[in-house]
Amino acid sequence: MKRKSTQKSSHVVAWLNKAEWDQVLEYLYSKDCALQKYALQRLSAWKARFVNSTPVAVESTAELVRCQVLDASGKLDTDELILLYGMALVRFVNLITERRQKIVSIPLRRLASQMNIPEWVVNLRHEITHGKLPTLYWCRKGCKFVLDWLHQEYWSRQLGSTLAEPWDSDSVGEEEEDLEVEDDFTDRHRKREIYRKARDLLLSYKKEQFQVLDELHKEDKVKKLWPSPSSDLEWIVMQIKDFETESREALLDVLLGDGFLVPTLEQLEILDIEPSDSSDTSIPCIPRLFLQFWLPLLRVLNSHMFIQTMTEKLFLQLQLCSETSEHRTFYISGWISEILSCNNRAGKTVKGLTPSQRKMRNKFQMFVNPVRLQWKKLLSLCLDAPCVATPHLLQQILTDMDKPLPHDTQQKLLHLCCIYTQRSGSCPSPDTEQQEQPVYTLETLHKRAVKESPHVVTHNSNTMSQAIPKDPVTVPEIKEDLQEHLSLEVIAERAMALKGSPWQICTDNVKWKNYPLGKVPGQSDDPGCLMVDSFSTISVLDQLLDIDKTAPHSTYTSESGLNHAVTDGPLWTHSDLSKLKAGLQLF
């Protein structure tokens, strides 16, 4: 290992003095292309003096500024500019991160994150190198961000120093980085070996269980109970048990991955489990055959710490499941529900069961004795991972808590959870259905309207004679779906208001939410349908007017040979208005 020197080594720089440095920095980041060109010429001189030791930040800045100058000149088309920007951005990411690649290869995203470079810049570099070229907008945006990053991380840091610190050279912190990288490499290598061993053990378990499944297929006993574990399987399970005491976190990380507790589609096909069984995730349930597949292992790994840690990790995994990964959400939430159900049944005896029924019940029991879980922590994790199955899981936690919350608090949590996940039908509240509940959603309002509509009609039946007018009004025939929402009094009132009008009450059960404002069912999307086929024009003066209504309301008096209007009357005479109307045309 190298030992850090106590004396600071001297460096040769390419600039004349601090004044030249300040000038070049100011010109590089100016908006004047002429000044930027002059700064690029000075950088070319610096590169000639540096030979092969030009700082990466200086070289990357020069390439990106040159792109901006050529872009502003207007001499290059869009494709040429994209290629120019792309080469500069690719070189920046590669050169900046290459200096940190020491003994072992580290992913670019991790290195970029350590250097405060956002992931979208690395993704932009990946698209330019391996995928479809990005648009010019993203190239310009990436160039602007990288220049700001270089100004903050390199150029600004040199202002307060002797301007001789090679920020990105191999000599800066090389000894410390070597020590850190070596330690980091050793730690990562150890973790990689632990994860590899955990995966090998679980793969051995799966292989042994699939061999048992093949024998069941041959004997046509797949629908029957899974046989007792073989000696080979017990030996594998004991190895996993010993490994779990040393590396519980690694074992759980592998166990909760795809292909293990979350089966792949190929595994479901082998187990003869329909993927459609997991379509309804509101009440998750692990298929019985898949549960039997993993029960021999889970029965051995039934310590308090393992169950608690596994449940916490399952909730954390549930947070990472997106809305599109319904398959993973179903099995993750299913295992949580299975653990909580087994813990609720553990240690309890059910009377009236036959020996065969009792044997069947114990066959699917994950552990015999109940586990004292940290319920408040699980409750918090459950609320932090909302999904369609959260109301069901929340109900299980609230029921099994050793120190239950107040009943009112439980009901409020359940209702808020159902509203958030839009699963109001999955919240059981038998003792509150009789009470008046607040309206939170349109669905709740609709249910209340359906409940109250018969009462409204009965209540208003005595006053219908007063509400219906004496004149005969044709009340349109209302369909059954619409009649649930409108009382007879309202229908009669609307019919009376529209009497003598070409409009009428719509009796069709139309879902108006599917039509935008101003559009009716059956209307064409072509705006030409609103145009009138034929029309004629008439003059405003040809209309029949009421002389009394159009007469001026002011009086005029003659005084000193001049006519003037009273201040509260109109300033225009009737003849003036007639002249204005003469030029108007009506369709």
TrEMBL record:
GO terms for biological process: rRNA processing. It comes from Lepisosteus oculatus (Spotted gar). Signal peptide: none annotated. GO terms for molecular function: endonuclease activity. This is LAS1 like ribosome biogenesis factor. InterPro entries: Las1. PANTHER family: RIBOSOMAL BIOGENESIS PROTEIN LAS1L. GO terms for cellular component: Las1 complex. It comes from the Eukaryota. Pfam families: Las1 (PF04031).
